[in-house]
Amino acid sequence: MAENITNVPVENSYDESNIQVLEGLEAVRKRPGMYIGSTTARGLHHLVYEIVDNSIDEALAGYCKEIQVTIKEDNSITVRDDGRGIPVGIQAQTGLPAVEVVFTVLHAGGKFGGGGYKVSGGLHGVGASVVNALSEYLEVEICDGKNVHYQKYERGAKLNELKVIGDTDRTGTFVHFKPDHLIFEELVFDYNVLLTRLREQAFLNAGIRIVLKDERPDENGKFREDVLHYEGGIKEFVQYLNRNKTPIHEEVIYVNAVRENSEAEIAMQYNDGYTENIESFANNINTTEGGTHETGFKAALTKVINDYARKYKMLKENEENLKGEDTREGLACIISVKVTEAQFEGQTKTKLGNSEMRTIVEKMINEKLSEFFEENPVIAKIIVEKAMTASRAREAAKRARDNTRRKSALESSTLPGKLADCSSRDTEFTEIYIVEGDSAGGSAKQGRDRRFQAILPLWGKMLNVEKSRIDKVFSNEKLLPVITAIGAGIGSDFDVSKIRYGKVVIMADADVDGAHIRTLLLTFFFRYMEPLIREGHVYIAQPPLYKVYKGKKVIYAYTDEDLKNALEEIPEASIQRYKGLGEMNPEQLWETTMDPEKRIMLRVDLEDAKRADEIFTILMGDKVEPRREFIEEHSKSVVNLDI
């Protein structure tokens, strides 16, 4: 019988009483994600960037030489610069001191009228006020060459009027703030995250000195401090990008141009690797999604290299032009533009929209890179030959890819022979376990739930894709089954919407060999199927290290700490150390590692693609010394697997 709903009271009325007006900084506290992206660790660090960016703008204007950033022991932050200092006089529109307006009014600052700053990244004028709104407290000191002015705020509201607290002959701004625990999920600053960002700023502003200090002692009672100062600017930035790689020409190519109120500079150097690393910036903001400046560079680079190859008969008449991806293989490049009226897409400022920047950059590269090639034929020839080799590899990869496609109709018997597929096709539930070894693969096949769990055992030699071009990937007997089973293509053809399984789980032994296999597979996914990681489809299974048992009582221990706790719970228990997955029978493997109700799995996140790129280069690249240093630095954080 149908339910009678005629007498249900109406709760969804919508009239003028539903309309809210959020005063002052209430809007920021109500919807912090709109202003800083998120309230996770990423948003937490964004607070520091907003304050530092104001000091950087002073440097761009030519008034600031040094910026000091300190992480205090209580995870509050101080930022001090030697710029002009935020104005303290009364602002005409509000009748308030200008510094108070900057910290309490959205869309207020010295970057709108063109008089205070010629070039600025913080064009939205929300930085300082947003940091203030999202801080438990914030205090600011302004040195104007005569007096020290001071004001303090709590969650965006001022606690005192601006007052003079001392004399000084210095100028500059000092900000001290503590992120609000009511807003942020994470309150602990990561020194390395801040270091990466501040290093970028030091490279992009040649000559500026940025000092980062950490007053939180490490386990040895020591404090970290880095002084970032690069007279070579973005040329040194490119050398830094290539520090773990081998450049194929010694000189960093540098070109720049100034057009009316805009300027552009580009530094580039090729290495013997196979991945491009182009980072673009507009007014010191990292435009991670590119934009007009990056588009202009790529188009001009392809044209210049093709023109040179044609002019000197390196490309024959019957040969096709080199593609853009060919000309950028192994390229490390920094693109930095400064523009008076920067047009960014959204508050996150990840893409530049100024159309004139494409014209400026394209013309600059066409003219000045062509000139450089003519004056440096040895370097030009090395670059063109690398691009031609990349082109041949791309064609070979295309043939292999087409061949793979013909062989891999998804629902046919051409799926990998050792793949034990699942019956469901719903990617909301399906998962594929990539397992090292036939023994573990056999246990996994017997222990799995066949409805939604597929098993792919790996065999043969795993390819290190960090040292290989894409054509080698298609001929590797260990990776081909992975490509075919996932079913979404590879490289530029990869389409994450076509994956056959919602979870791709790497299941390897908990030893050095297993760690190596995991790293090789993750490198492959990162280089050739990045959306798979970016959208959260890649997982790492966590098999137990020990079985602790006495009589019928059994506890599985996944860490040494778990083992210690288990032995306290079961005194005089026996301990079985699992040296490999193959030592577990199907029931144990299901119960400990594959049962969704009980298993532990780590999802691989791509919070910082740049950091991931660096780590994979260090771990899987040719250079031994960076790898040794990385392992030594992180060895203490690796779980001790010895009993």
Radius of gyration: 29 Å
Tell me the number of helical segments per DSSP (H or I, 4 or more residues long). 20
Low-confidence stretches: 1-22, 111-115, 408-413, 635-643
Straight-line N-to-C gap: 66 Å
Which structural class fits the helix and strand makeup?
alpha+beta
Strand content: 15-25%
Helix content: 25-40%
CATH topology grouping of the largest domain: Heat Shock Protein 90
Q: Quick one: CATH class of the largest domain?
A: Alpha Beta
CATH superfamily of the largest domain: Histidine kinase-like ATPase, C-terminal domain
Shape: globular
CATH 2nd-level architecture of the largest domain: 2-Layer Sandwich
Number of strands: 24
Total domain units: 3
pLDDT averaged over residues: 85
Largest sheet: 9 strands, mixed
